[in-house]
Design goal:
- It is globular, with a radius of gyration of 22 Å.
- Strand 6 and strand 7 form a beta hairpin.
- Helix content is about 30%, strand content about 25%.
- It folds into 2 domains: about 130 residues, no CATH class; about 250 residues, 2-enoyl-CoA Hydratase, Chain A, domain 1 (Alpha-Beta Complex).
- The protein starts with a strand and ends with a helix.
- By secondary structure, it is of the alpha+beta class.
- The strands form 4 sheets. It has a 7-stranded mixed beta sheet, with helices on both faces.
- This is Tail specific protease domain-containing protein.
């Protein structure tokens, strides 16, 4: 490992739950703020341990004993210096880093090995992987994620009349955002439907030169919300991996005429392990033309509804004059965002030169009761997908979660 330069780098990143389905994606370039010359694995360990010790958002509630990790793993990294440098030696270093962090609570945590490598996690071998994402890998053992296109196709062709959609791509991140709207054709009630695959609504609303512009779709949806032009609304956030913090106001703020508290946010205040800012209140800001939406709202969520999407659900739950029901599965449980600038937030992701990157929240989110959402938001009405119901949906187009939402609103 001689001569490897370990570099801490930072960037401005929106709070997307990026990397959710990509274990072999490109790692974005980051703004360089300082350099560390690393000549061996001992120095790599020091950078990794210190970076997490300094930048991690949840040490005050974390069950992992980070000081114990130092005592146990420092000798192991030191011993790697005695081995001939090879892919096997690199894999061992990657394995040790994975073992040290496999139980961290932060749902945004990702360890990326620049050159790729092998590691074992909960008795499974992950071979030639770039990314170690413990929260995702545990979730995938419950069931694989269903593609956005499946939900879109089934809703558009089996459940919706007058459907419309807009598509926007951010060419810096290559993230594609789609919104679908329409009227549910089943049941006696006049139900509005919208499916949102991630929260880039404001960004896509303001975008120009888009082939399938979301702006008119979003504007029409908001007009119907302001007028209460329906008997209820289904907001489909399944598989929604998060997005931009501004969308909490831009979207949820269409449903209320007055501010509402929905949670708290905090950052690192310094380089000390427990240097945190006070928890700052998060309030929904009503948007122009908004009135209190008095019709029932059903939110569809699943185990891949994550990050900022969970904040949006909490914000809807914070609306005092609106009945909001979550149907589906317990959400992902992220508890943090990657938002703004890592320098100004004194925490978050860091690079280890040509070896690895540690990616994590630079903002911690708490609910109205000052609790961290590590376990996800529980649905009010649980409807879970399993292999049999997924196969039935593929064969017949019957979406059991959407069916339950329609049944619930037609009671």
């Amino acid at each position: 490992m001689s001569g490897i330069k370990i570099i801490f780098k930072y960037t401005v990143v929106v709070g997307l739950f990026a990397g959710l389905y990509s274990c072999k994606r490109e790692i974005p370039k980051r703004e360089l703020i300082s350099n560390y010359e690393i000549n061996d694995f001992s120095e790599l360990f020091h950078v990794f341990w210190t970076g997490l010790n300094t930048n991690y958002q949840f040490w005050d509630v974390e069950t992992v004993n980070w000081d114990s990790m130092y005592r146990v793993y420092k000798p192991k990294f030191d011993s790697l210096n005695l081995r001939p440098y090879s892919d096997t030696t690199t894999n061992l270093g990657f394995q040790y880093m994975a073992d040290m962090t496999k139980d961290l609570k932060d749902g945004q945590y990702v360890l990326q090995l620049w050159s790729g490598g092998d590691y074992r996690f909960e008795d499974s071998l992950y071979k030639s992987y770039i990314s170690f994402i413990p929260k995702l890998q545990r979730t995938q053992r419950i069931r694989p994620a269903l593609p956005d296109t499946l939900f879109d196709y089934i809703s558009q062709y089996n459940y919706l009349d007058e459907f419309d959609y807009g598509v926007y791509k951010n060419y810096n991140t290559n993230v594609v955002s789609q919104i679908t709207t329409g009227r549910i054709r089943k049941g006696a009630k006049d139900l509005l439907y919208t499916g949102i695959n991630n929260f880039m609504l404001k960004e896509s609303y303001d975008a120009k030169y888009v082939t399938y512009p979301p702006r008119p779709v979003i504007k029409n949806l908001f007009d119907n919300i302001h007028k209460g032009n329906c008997d209820g609304i289904i907001i489909d956030l399944r598989n929604n991996r998060g997005g931009n913090l501004e969308d909490v106001d831009f979207f949820v703020g269409q449903f209320t005429a007055k501010p509402a508290l929905y949670g708290y946010i905090r950052y690192k205040s310094g380089s000390g392990r427990l240097d945190y800012t006070p928890a700052l209140p998060l309030n929904i800001t009503p948007q122009t033309g908004a009135t209190d939406f008095k019709k029932p709202i059903v939110i569809l969520a699943d185990i891949y509804s994550s990050a900022l999407c969970e904040s949006v659900i909490q914000a809807f739950k914070g609306l005092s004059n609106t009945k909001v029901t979550v149907i589906g599965e317990r959400t992902y449980g992220t508890a943090g965002l990657i938002t703004g600038n890592d320098i100004s937030t004194n925490g978050g992701s860091f690079n280890m030169g040509s070896f690895a990157t540690a990616r994590m929240s630079n903002a911690a989110l708490l609910d109205k009761n000052h609790k961290f959402n590590f376990s996800g938001i529980s649905p009010d009405v649980e409807v879970t997908y399993d292999a049999a119901s997924i196969n039935t949906m593929l064969q017949t187009g019957v979406d059991i979660q959407l069916e339950k939402a329609i049944e619930f609103l037609n009671q």
